[in-house]
Amino acid sequence: MAKSPIDVIVRMLSSDAPERQLAAVIVLGELEHKKAVPELTGMLPEAPPTLQRHVLEALARIGLGSRALAPVWPLCASRDAEVRRAASDAIASAGEGVIGEVQARLGAAEGEERRALEGILSRLGGAEAFDVLLAALAGGDEESNRATALELRRHVKDADAKTRRGYRARLERFLKRELPVPALAAAVKVLGYLEDPATAPTLMALAQDRTGPPAVRQEALIALRFTFAEGGASKELVTALVDAAGAPDRALAQTALMTLATVEVPAAHAPALARLAHHPDLSRAEMAIEKLGSLGGAGATQTLVEIVGRGDKRRAELAAAALEPRADALGPLVELLTSTDELERAKLVRQAIKPRLSKLTPAMKKALAARAVAALVSDAATVEPLVSSAKDAGAALVEPLRAEAARLRKGKDRAAEARVLSALARIGEASAEERYRLASIHLASSHRDPRTRGADAGLRMLRELTREGFDVAGAMRKDRSASLDSLYYVGFCFLEDDVDGGEELLREVVAQGGRTKLAKAAKNKLALEG
Question: What is the pLDDT of residue 2?
Answer without folding.
Answer: 40
